[in-house]
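Notebook p. 47: complex prediction with adenosine-5'-diphosphate.
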Amino acid sequence: MRPELLNPLFAETESLEGVGPKLKKPLEKLGLTRVRDVAYHLPDRFVQRRAVADLDEASVGEQIVVPLTAFEHRASPNSRAPHRVMARDARGNVCALVYFGKASYTARKLFPVGETRWVAGKLEQYDQWLQIVHPDHVAEDSAGLMGYLVEPVYPLAEGLTQPKLAHLANQALDRAPELTEWIEPGVLARHKWPAWREALRLAHRGPHPEARDRLAYDELLANSLALMLVRAANRKRRGQPLKGDGRLRGQLSLPFPLTGAQRRAIGEIEGDMAQASPMLRLLQGDVGSGKTVVALEAMLIAVEAGAQAAMLAPTEILARQHFDTLRAMAAPTGVTIALLTGSDKGRARESILMGLVDGSIDIIVGTHAIFQDTVAYKNLGLVVIDEQHRFGVSQRLLLTQKGRTTPHTLAMTATPIPRTLTLAQYGEMDVSQLDEMPPGRQAIDTRVIALDRLGEVVDGLARHLESGQQAYWVCPMVSGGEHESEDLAAAEARFASLKTRFGDAMVLVHGQLKPELKDAAMERFAGGDARLLVATTVIEVGVDVPNATLMVIEQAERFGLAQLHQLRGRVGRGSAKSVCLLLRGDMLSEVGRERLALMRETQDGFRLAEEDLRLRGGGELLGTRQSGDTPFRIADLDQIQRLLPLASDDAKLLVERDGGLASTRGEAARVLLYLFERDWGVQLLRGG
Ligand code: ADP
Ligand code: MG
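Predicted complex, structure tokens below:
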């Protein structure tokens, strides 16, 4: 249960004065549904103004607050021309206050001739005249404006204005209770961080890096702490020590020797599985690094030890692909492998369910269907989760609650993420890295081509398809992912234009396609019936079509490095030489240029991930503090890099000292977990 003192913060935004159904929508668009969200909706920047006695003290271009006296109104002669309030400062300098459109009506009221007003705005020069266009604020005395010397600029959505948001933020801040400190006093002192409530207030009032860092650290600490609690709870669970005797693994006849990295990972997994506490391990390895064999070895350990293993894939098509691969590889061992997906119904499904209960099935591969309530296992010893990033931590927890004992968990991801982010996403797990590619892999020939050479590219594509090979064509994110329909329209247009040339041997895959249809299209491509796959960015991660050896990515500069790397990983899977063409638009930014150059230079996913973080941390996402692929809303990439290792260490220490969160600081940390909705961490405490 959420601590009561947080209730005011978790009230809906409608409980704030001025928020009705009309304002609710734009607030939601900004992700603000509760008072807490408003309190944490921090300004992007601040307008800083200087109060001056007269215009001689100010320079053109400066934001100022100055007393001015109106001496004449020059009304607009037509609707396009502005209304000018001619005014003088204390030294007689003339300055025009310029109002366009409807605002001109208010200008007369604001500036009665002969009276002095304090005006806040940006001083500009027009010909030889000084002017302030649409003053930001006007007041009768200086006191009315001194509060605006530093003014927050909030991220907005349509229907909201700065004053409205400032008004809401003020109310939200007033509702923030005093909370007991959860940060170690030493840490607080070392960074000169203010207390929570004060930090929140300061962060809205002016540029205050310490306050913002503290708030970011809070979020990082909450996340780390929750993950550490998961880890600690997992340690306490009853697992099943599984020691294989090697009898099945010995019968595998792999056509290749394992890489050193694969052997190391298998050793680590073997060590974990032999323990009584359940394994919680992440296998991180770039596309093509050979994770499947590692998973198979792990599953065979379970079977050798008399248990069953389950492998969970995010989509049916991936499940089927794994099923085929595993069955082929494991054939000599004689283990029974079955496939279960959502489309299995009736008899077929029943018989698989029976096989899982009576233990005649050793290994099951499937989608979520393998963890439904109706599915029972004789003795599930190991769960392998492929493409881990599709499952959140809380889902991960649910998956492993089957049976009397907790099965060992091996999560696998092909997304090479930087070390700091690994800590954020998977901090509760031990990590094995496949940082070595199997030998003999051909480098993918990556070229950057200007979009205006599209004709040549299509000709090349035609030759490629004629030679019997297949290809992918990825369409641009027109709207930066904001308007899916526009992306789709662009993809459909491209599909139509390519179709005039290539006819029916094409499929179109996009995010709005129903799963069955998407699977069917992917199937047509995987089977070789379709030669060209045109897609928005949703090409299934992990889909393996070795005959597809050409990848075209339109407006490649719009994609992140990690994403480009993922996409490029679709080719280069067979023995034939593969090519990746990055088509660039002509509006190439410095960062965009650097990105594409890096893609040409390296195929090392971990390196690209680090560079991606560096480039984006450097302001590429200007104005968007949130980054889609971190689990954080407050902490930006720079703060994550600086503060996450620290937060992670502090969380670890806290859990070691006070695993039940029972001390005063522990209690405070519970509140923190609720504040950032990492309460699944707290719930584990009770469950034991
Ligand atoms: P991942 O799932 O990590 O993307 P896979 O497990 O699908 O990669 O392996 C990619 C390809 O590499 C497969 O064809 C696999 O048979 C092959 N492979 C795996 N390990 C080795 C190895 N040690 N040497 C040579 N080829 C390997
Ligand atoms: Mg794979």
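Notes: The radius of gyration is 31 Å. The chain has three domains: 47-152, 178-439+640-688, 445-602.
Next step: compare against the earlier run before touching the bench.
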